[in-house]
Amino acid sequence: MTLQDPAAPPATAPAAAAAPGQAAAPAPAIVCEGLWKVYGPDPEGALAGPTPPSAAALRESGHVPAVRDVSLSIAPGEMLVVMGLSGSGKSTLVRCLSRLIEPTAGRVTVDGEDLLGLDEAGLIRLRREKMGMVFQNFALLPHRTVLENVAFPLEMRGQRRQERRRRALEVIELVGLKGREDHFPRELSGGQQQRVGIARSLAIEPDIWFLDEPFSALDPLIRREMQDEFLRLQEMLGKTIVFITHDFDEALRLSDRIAIMYEGGVEQIDTPDRIVMNPATDYVERFTREIAKARVVHAAALADPGLSAEGEPVPGDATIAALGRRLVESSAALIPVAGPDGRSLGAMERTRALDLLFADAP
Ligand SMILES: Nc1ncnc2c1ncn2[C@@H]1O[C@H](COP(=O)(O)OP(=O)(O)OP(=O)(O)O)[C@@H](O)[C@H]1O
């Protein structure tokens, strides 16, 4: 997957007016503004003061700030990964974005539609037409076979039996469960059950896909295969994806941007390159300290468009680690960097790249 423009539209931005000769930025798929979810005796009262309360103040009054004043905007086709320690609010945030959990305050729009203003029927329609969800606990129907589980959302959509069966078999094969169509969930391992959950969600080809640790029960080899499969699908289908994971490597492989949560708030939301190069807070700095930065940062992120250099350009989508040999063997101060179309992205300072390369050395 290619890195997208790191400058995502601000949370409140309407579709940007296009400059003459430029295509308009697409309207965001999901926007949330000032989103809160507070648990406790009086959530609304706890937020009623003139200024938003701190996490500490909320806890002192017996409340849990599960999501704290989150504003973000997700572009169509973007893969946003939500990371953070256990209890930092990842699941609650993602469930608020699909309104599986009712937020205490704030606004959410999905394709321009006011999610919190929808009545029950409107919400069901929006979920059915646009949203797919895969959660940690799979939520499979125990008395239905794999095939019936996967075909279930198609049945809900009113699709004909033959068509349901064809599509279900297709996605069952895709997730590597061919031959187990007639098994019941209890006859499958945890990882296999999780794949049924993924297949069921894929069957309806949602535009927006919420995934809460979908690969956590898979063993490492299969997990990597599923990630590859996932990237392949995403390349083809270009869905808008919000993906929760604990695993930084997984986040780096899959994400266009990562949101790092702490105590219900989003500490930083940015490309992996920028997060490791410019952590916005002490917390993010600590969170990313152990990461091998040269494996994360791409040449494009170090390229200065104002600089130019002679010689064979390095590809902008190569990581600094992958360019290690060239960096060490070169004696040039500046190395040219090119985009996928061969266009110059400027040049990077070799010493900056080497600093990143050797910062990771033990
Ligand atoms: N129904 C609830 N009632 C009270 N507190 C809750 C409830 N649901 C979640 N919380 C609290 O909200 C906070 C955020 O929980 P959440 O499940 O969103 O975290 P998470 O980052 O997804 O954690 P994990 O990685 O362990 O799944 C936690 O402190 C949790 O205990």
TrEMBL record:
Residues 30-288 form the ABC transporter domain. It is found in: Cell inner membrane. InterPro entries: AAA+_ATPase, ABC_osmolyte_uptake_ATP-bind, ABC_transporter-like_ATP-bd, ABC_transporter-like_CS, Gly-betaine_transp_ATP-bd, P-loop_NTPase. It is an enzyme of class 7 (translocase). The complex is probably composed of two ATP-binding proteins, two transmembrane proteins and a solute-binding protein. One of its GO terms (molecular function) is ATP binding. It comes from the Bacteria. Pfam families: ABC_tran. It catalyses: a quaternary ammonium(out) + ATP + H2O = a quaternary ammonium(in) + ADP + phosphate + H(+). Keywords: ATP-binding, Cell inner membrane, Cell membrane, Membrane, Nucleotide-binding, Transport. This is Quaternary amine transport ATP-binding protein. It is a peripheral membrane protein. Its EC number is 7.6.2.9.
